[in-house]
Amino acid sequence: MPPRDGRSLWDAVRAAGALAERALWGAEASVRLGELVGGSSLGGRLEELRGRSVLVATRDQLTAALALIELDGVARRLVLCPPDLPRKVAPFVMATAAVDAVVSDRAALEAGSVGTVVTCSARLAPADSARTGPHHTEWILLTSGTTGVPKLVVHTLASLAGAINGDRVQTVPAVWSTFYDIRRYGGLQILLRALLGGGSLVLSSAAESTGDFLIRAGARGVTHISGTPSHWRRALMSPSAHRIAPHYVRLSGEIADQAILDHVRACYPGARIAHAFASTEAGVGFAVEDGLAGFPASLLTQRGAEVELKVEEGSLRIRSARTGIRYLGSPGEPLADRDGFVDTGDIVELRGARYHFVGRRGGIINVGGLKVHPEEVEAVINGHPQVQMSVVRTRKNAITGALVVADVVLRTAPDSAETGRVAELEREILQRCRDALSRHKVPAAIRFVRFLGVAGTGKVVRQHA
Amino acid sequence: MSVRASVLAQFERVAQEQKKTLAPLTDDLVLLESGLDSLCLAIIVAQLEDALGVDPFSAAEDAEFPVTLGDFIELYEHAAP
Hints:
The complex is a heterodimer.
Chain A: H1 9-15, E1 23-25, E2 30-32, E3 39-40, E4 53-56, H2 61-71, E5 77-80, H3 90-96, E6 101-104, E7 116-119, E8 125-126, E9 138-143, E10 151-156, H4 157-160, E11 175-178, H5 185-196, E12 200-202, H6 210-219, E13 224-227, H7 229-236, E14 248-251, H8 258-267, E15 272-279, E16 283-288, E17 295-296, E18 307-312, E19 315-320, E20 326-328, E21 342-351, E22 354-360, E23 365-367, E24 370-372, H9 374-382, E25 387-397, E26 401-410, H10 419-436, E27 445-448
Parallel strand pairs in A: 1-12, 4-5, 4-6, 5-9, 6-7, 11-12, 11-13, 13-14, 14-15, 26-27
Antiparallel strand pairs in A: 1-2, 3-8, 9-10, 10-20, 15-16, 17-22, 18-19, 19-21, 21-22, 23-24, 25-26
Helix pairs in contact in A: 7-8
Chain B: H1 3-17, H2 38-52, H3 56-59, H4 69-79
Helix pairs in contact in B: 1-2
């Protein structure tokens, strides 16, 4: 159940009961929730973090989960640092969120201007601090922005847990797992489902292969498991796919096409298979369990629903108590419109009685669940002295849903005799991209073209979706 | 170049580009243990579509996901125009 107003995460975890039987299982270490009654991951230093804006920057997901459980209600603000946050943007994030304390599981954190650094460990120390209030802690999640600098989205435990109400009547406690990292919205949802719903959780690890993770989750008797369609495509390519026998499989974070829904159904014929729409900004919109791609148009006209959906200018918009509250540090940029609807930027198309996702506004590319803003990649390509302009597009892909590709216009087109020079330029441009961008943002292919379409607005014509 | 040779060439090329250590390419090699991650496999699928003019993953929705390199090559051999 979602926590009632004012209750902290730890209060809600305790209220869900059976602490001694429930656990968070990491790849390297595990903690029974009962151990947190008299134990702390923060080495007895919880009081130092009371009222602070705390960056939770751990290497390990388990230590992050423990810190979140202990700090909700105690810290003023919890900033969830995703594992791949580029070092160069960390100062921006810390300044924007007014971070004045860091929780880390690294022995020596890189020296910064932050006063308090608390080490977090899965080896619990005796604790006697009260984990109750008084703070209504802000949870800050990071999402990608157009310029490569992340946006900071403010949530509360109540907004994050707003979609968690079902799955109450269970004879066997759920063992949740997720391919996601819990510092991302999709993974955090699963952590909270396990914690608030009386279940346990098997955490994934970046250092572990898909096969090993599936074996570990299977050994813990996983009943509920979530991931992006790309995570699932990878799982289904593993000989260990049958080491789990889940009752419930959830797909979110990318378009779930009919093929992947059918593949998952064929692999786990006994499971309920849900595909959900959720984003860091819009929260959980809906989950559909009918096994069909897209979602019923009737979801838009449900009266008195907790989540209101509408389609305007082609994109899905969502209003609910589960959406983010605001962006931190971007006063000029409202997260929702005046009526409280969040524009998801996901373009949908009505076919019969069902809406289907067809792509993203602004050409944002979703590579295996990771967003790519074309502008960021174009800026890097355009930095090459021989490049006049470029446009970065999506290319459909069966493994990651989409890949990034680029059309490039050169300042002086090499004539056809200079194929060697073209290959050399391609290598140089790709090297630039590899030096400056995360791997999923580097174009998988570059096509040299003579010109690009330019619209009346003076902007390059993008082929949406 | 045969379909098999094209597939193997793409594995080698992408592994080199992405600085991944490739396991010996035998038919019973499990793809997820090849040293390549999803992004690498995605790039291979895209480049094979350009080279062979076919994407068996999108063509046959009921096709099973390949587990081994042998499965993967077979998928392309059956799909090749």
